[in-house]
Amino acid sequence: MPIDAAKALAAAPRTGGIAWDRKDVLLYHLGIGAGVPATDPGELRYTLESRLHVLPSFATVAGGGPPGVIGGLSMPGVDVDLARVLHGGQSLTLHRPLPAEGTATTADRITAVHDKGEAAVLVVRTEVTDANGPLWTSDARIFVRGEGGWGGDRGPSARPGPPAGDPDRTVERHIREDQALLYRLSGDRNPLHADPGFAKAAGFDRPVLHGLCTYGVTLKAVVDTLLDGDVTRVRAYATRFAGVVFPGETLRIRMWRGQAAVRVAVSAVERGDAPVLADTVVEHR
Question: pLDDT tens-digit profile of 116-134?
């Protein structure tokens, strides 16, 4: 069996080091659409190094390496075909605000292997620490088609019900035609997001936007719209990837305000509000 659940779960954490600077943060912010309008004071906090605030979702690209989904496929006990892999969901917990530059130590391990019958789901956890202590913890949920059915634990299946009532705020964010080409410079150079031939072989009419780019666009919209533009108020952020986005489309981002959390639903306007992100929650101070 390509996935040996016992071996994967028993493996020691894989440690490494990452570093980033203001240029990396600025590039990430541009990659998720910051800077429009270019002279807006609210945008300059993302695009001007002298007043730089770090959007917490930058944690998903800090260090400039491949995303956790790719790293998880080289863990002990895991030997699967990349073509069968989907990024099913992402969660992030912030232990303190992210600095605009720094160095840190990472520890990656598989914390769960679920048997969904026709597929397996791996949960890859990354814990990041710098000289001052824990910085963030992230979980990437990897859906591997055709690798289930060994009789293992199915894992949690309950999902939160839809938010009640009409959203408190709805905003739209246009995705530029070259958005994926810009975002990929932050580390994820999977040709699925740039090469039409590769995308067609993978079953898509054209290259698709990185799910983690949509993840960043959405968090920025929530921070700017409901959290007074204050990135330090974000405590945690989780989502399930429910569909793809194509560069050039428009995202419709619906937000329901709670006491300490914002529920969010994201859809693609041009495709009849096709779901893109679901079960999305931003916890905040």
Answer: 998 999 999 999 999 999 9
User: pLDDT tier at 68 (50, 70, 90 boundaries)?
Assistant: low
Nearest to 138 by CA among 231, 242, 68, 230: 68
pLDDT digit string, tens, across residues 9-53: 999 999 999 999 999 999 999 999 999 999 999 999 999 999 999
CA angle 47, 35, 51 (to 5 degrees): 25
Q: Which of 108, 188, 210, 284 is catalytic?
A: 188
Phi first, then psi: give them for residue 191, nearest 5 degrees: -65, -15
Instruction: Identify which of 56, 49, 51 has the alpha carbon closest to the alpha carbon of residue 32.
Output: 56
Tokens for 58? 């930058």
Positive/negative CA dihedral, 40, 20, 73, 114? negative
Residue that wins the pLDDT comparison between 56 and 81: 56
Q: Cα-flanking dihedrals φ and ψ of residue 147, to 5°? A: -115, 15
- Please confirm, yes or no, whether 188 is among the known catalytic residues: yes
178 is catalytic: no
Backbone torsions φ then ψ of 47, nearest 5 degrees: -125, 0
Q: Which of 29, 87, 114, 193 is catalytic?
A: 193
Which pTM was predicted?
Answer: 0.95
3-class SS at 130?
A: strand
Token pair recorded at residue 215: 């993840």
Ranges of beta strands (E only) in the chain are 14-20, 85-94, 102-115, 119-130, 133-145, 169-174, 234-241, 250-257, 261-268, 274-284
Q: What is the pLDDT of residue 81?
A: 77
Inter-helix orientation angle 22-31/211-226, to 10°: 90
Buried b (16+ CB within 10 A) or exposed e, 105-126: ebebbbebbbbbeebbbbbbbb
